[in-house]
Amino acid sequence: MTYNSDNVKMKRPELYLNRLWCMGKKAIAWGCFVLVTVTVHATENNSAQDESQDKARALDESIRSVTSHVLTTETSEIVYSATAASLTVHDSQSRAVGKIFYVAYKQENLNGKERPLTFVFNGGPGAASAYLHLGALGPRRVVFNKGGSVAPPPARIADNPESWLAFTDLVFVDPIGTGYSRRVEQAGSNERDSDKRSPESGSSGQSHSRQRVWGVEEDSDILSRFIRNYLTEESRWLSPVYLVGESYGGFRVARLSRLLQSEFGIAPSGVTLISPVLDFGFLLGNDRSLWPWVSLLPSYAAAAAVHQKNGRLIDYQTDDPRTSLADVERFAMTGYLSGLAGGVNRPDWIERAGNFAGLGQDILLRNRGRVRSGRFVKALLADKRRLLSLYDASITLIDPRPDIQSDVGRDFYLDQLNVPLISAMNHYIRENLNFKVAVPYLLLNKQVSRSWNWRSGIHGQQGFAEAVSDLKQAMSMNPDMQVMIMHGVFDLVTPYFASAIMINQMALDTQLVGNVRLRVYHGGHMPYLHKRSLGAMFKDAQQFYRQAL
């Protein structure tokens, strides 16, 4: 996400994060989370790609597939049904705005009205739900190597004994422009043109804004309407409702938790945010901002430790890597924070920051203690001509350009990850779920991120979009709502320490403080790709649902 020269329009947060500091432009927000990089790939993802053909082959809601399956775990057999279908969403004027594709899993022989129902979203914006679907939560999962790296092709799909289907029914939702979900254009209007208009004219209240589907407010409204429609169509209004979102999906879910209550009469019992961005200003800022650097230092130290560059080994005997990073966190909030604010006239804090991050003092001094993530991933293993992934700094990659100091391009690890997910999802939906349509399945759609209306999520004339206030308001309206935030310690896109700081800064009422929990795992932006963390996340989520109920 990027801001234009007027600091108004953000395009995609994720991998743009390093460009923000790397290029020194006014602002480049990474949409992450989602945070997905500048160049989102796959041939089929040239999403302007023959949109006219997509319209001619648009989803027909009569195409609905329901299949039966059995998932075998160590303790039981789960008999479940899988529904692959789409729902048409209408705006406040009862005009169709989009057809949203979803895959829903329901345990058979259980009381559906009492069983938890979880809606799952990925981020981007522009990412389909395949990451969480076939990576972590669904009953089937793409096989990755134990440490999170991608196995050689072709992709393999296996049963997932850590599927959250064990304790909740699941609905994986692909927002408009991702997966098989598509816009519905209004007669006599050109929505494509409206998406190209200025951010200001696309703000809430303008006549043509009703035609928009890609934007902060627009997205929240459409997905809230989808959830309401689904509860109605499936007679699930009495089910406890949960929300799960990853990356920008975490931002999305935080906003939905408020909007569902205030506008649609739906009070979530719990929300789970995986590697979320809660406040883009907190992570992006500018050259004089302090929090972005403070947030990154503990993850830098974790990466340096796993690559044996700072002499501090993370304790892998514990599921919580934060126990090994207490000194780094303490220094980040004291000596490092005050040093950034005071300048480099006191070199003592520079030396200590460099020791934690595994970097030489010269790098810290040249950059006033502010080492961009794109510089860090190049510098740490420069002697081996290797670079780290921003999404998971425990993963090493061949450096194609060791002659340059900063990585400002695409993240090869994300590219590697997308390959098996695209092929596995296309095979799984068609062959296992028996859902067959002519439109291509879009895992990452760069047109969505390019067209995203960030302005609608910014209150005031300047600033960044944020969802912290939405989450706090949702918790205040519904004091029983539980919140769990999950992070990977090696994530340099949405570092865990940012969420830790923001939780403290939310200034929650004493009645609500215990409703928020933060869990950190041995992994990256998608911590569940590490086999050990997949199991730990499953156990924490199972306990979370039990407590919330």
How would you describe this protein?
Helix content is 34%, strand content 15%. The chain has 549 residues and is of the alpha/beta class. It has two domains: 44-278 and 418-548, 3-Layer(aba) Sandwich (Rossmann fold); 281-413, no CATH class. Residues 1-42 form the signal peptide. It comes from Nitrosomonas marina. Residues 183-213 are annotated as: Disordered.
Tags for this model:
15% strand, alpha/beta, 17 helices, Rossmann fold, 549 residues, 10-stranded mixed beta sheet, disordered N terminus, 34% helix, globular
Name of the level-1 CATH class of the largest domain: Alpha Beta
Q: Can you tell me the number of structural domains? A: 2
Average predicted confidence as pLDDT: 84
Poorly predicted regions:
1-50, 190-211
CATH superfamily placement of the largest domain: Alpha/Beta hydrolase fold, catalytic domain
β-sheet strand percentage: 15-25%
Radius of gyration computed on alpha carbons: 22 Å
Task: Determine the fraction of residues in helical runs and give it as a percent range.
Answer: 25-40%
CATH architecture tag of the largest domain: 3-Layer(aba) Sandwich
From the helix content, strand content and strand pairing, which structural class follows? alpha/beta
The beta-strand count equals 14
Number of helices: 17
CATH topology of the largest domain: Rossmann fold
The description of the largest β-sheet is:
10 strands, mixed
What separation lies between the terminal Cα atoms?
A: 37 Å
Principal-axis shape: globular
